[in-house]
């Protein structure tokens, strides 16, 4: 009796193998379709560090570690540089506030004074400020329902007042997309949310809060050394922030303010001539006479001081020496040291009203 095999012949399996190879199972197709329908994962871009942070990291590598202090202000950390007085007993501490784009060891004013004042018996503390008006987005406040309704009605009325424009096909021509208009940017879908708008008012407010928090943390550190006197010295726009801090916070521990080549940050108020005379603190206003704008600004501050009968406001004029930067910084140091010797207001008393 011939043997009987239960296995199919190879020729019978060939069509099945071909079908399995070229026709994927239904569950494979479903998985592929689900993968296509799933939106792509958002690309996480690395946070861009501020220029001031990069400069601070460079100083941390270059300068001795024993003079570095990392302080906290709110949710962020920042660098300060501390130097003790080169005398047995310190006269006090001078807190140096740099201007826009300047570091805690800036070669103009901040760095030279930071290193020279300890020889005159003063401790120094310089700090890093955030980038001027950081570009971090600040969401614009949501418009009210009434405003949104008014805008909608105005848009509808504007559309109704315009005649229908038809092209050759009898329909209104489609508006050009951004890409078609030649901007070089791809057209965006209607449901894609636009980037959050930046409210300049909120941006300036947020920047001022960051600066004030850093000044407060720096002053707290200086007070831990129990100094005889605390002097706040600002250079450039740092002079504005030093004066504004004193005007808003009115700290009882600080009775002396030094302004060096004072400037007002762009779009910020109030002006220095409106703010400084009202402080009634011992104030040294150091300015360079070479630029007309600087002379005019100094004149306004002097006139405001006279109107307010400021008891201890002194202006010191200097000459810029661009051909000899070292001599220019030595000139500034000698003038600052002279003011500290002659006009310093002791913490035990304030200028008479």
TrEMBL record:
Record's signal peptide: 1-30
Keyword annotations of the record: Hydrolase, Signal
InterPro entries assigned to the protein according to its UniProt record, in alphabetical order: AB_hydrolase_fold, DUF3530
Biased composition range(s): Basic and acidic residues: 47-64, 150-167
Ranges where the record places region Disordered: 31-70, 127-209
Key word Hydrolase present: yes
Entry's Gene Ontology molecular function annotations: hydrolase activity
Short name of one Pfam family: DUF3530
Protein name: Alpha/beta hydrolase family protein
């Amino acid at each position: 009796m011939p043997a009987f095999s239960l296995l199919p012949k190879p020729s019978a399996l060939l069509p099945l193998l071909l079908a399995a190879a070229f026709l994927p199972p239904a569950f494979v197709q479903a998985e592929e379709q689900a993968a296509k329908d799933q939106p792509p994962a958002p690309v996480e871009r690395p946070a861009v560090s501020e220029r001031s942070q990069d400069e601070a990291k460079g100083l941390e590598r270059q300068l001795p570690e024993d003079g570095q202090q990392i302080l906290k202000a709110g949710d962020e950390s920042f660098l300060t540089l501390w130097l003790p007085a080169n005398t047995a007993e310190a006269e006090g501490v001078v807190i140096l506030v740099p201007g826009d784009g300047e570091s805690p060891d800036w070669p103009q004013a901040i760095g030279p004074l930071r290193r020279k004042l300890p020889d005159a018996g003063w401790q120094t503390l310089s700090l890093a400020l955030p980038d001027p008006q950081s570009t971090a987005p600040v969401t614009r406040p949501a418009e009210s329902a009434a405003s949104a309704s008014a805008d909608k009605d105005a848009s509808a009325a504007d559309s109704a007042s315009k005649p229908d424009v038809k092209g050759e096909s009898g329909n209104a021509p489609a508006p050009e997309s951004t890409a078609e208009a030649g901007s070089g940017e791809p057209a965006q879908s209607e449901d894609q949310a636009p980037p959050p708008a930046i409210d300049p008012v909120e941006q300036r407010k947020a920047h001022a809060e960051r600066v004030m928090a850093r000044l407060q943390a720096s002053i707290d550190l200086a007070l831990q050394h129990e100094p005889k006197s605390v002097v706040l010295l600002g250079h450039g726009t740092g002079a504005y922030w030093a004066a504004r801090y004193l005007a808003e916070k009115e700290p009882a521990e600080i009775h002396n303010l030094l302004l060096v080549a004072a400037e007002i940050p762009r779009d910020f108020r109030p002006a220095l001539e409106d703010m400084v005379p009202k402080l009634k603190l011992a104030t040294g206003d150091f300015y360079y006479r070479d630029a007309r704008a600087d002379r005019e600004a100094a004149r306004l501050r002097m006139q405001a001081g006279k109107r307010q009968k400021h008891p201890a406001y002194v202006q010191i004029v200097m000459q810029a020496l661009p051909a000899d930067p070292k001599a220019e910084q030595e000139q500034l140091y000698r003038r600052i040291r002279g003011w500290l010797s002659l006009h310093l207001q002791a913490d035990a008393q304030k200028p008479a009203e």
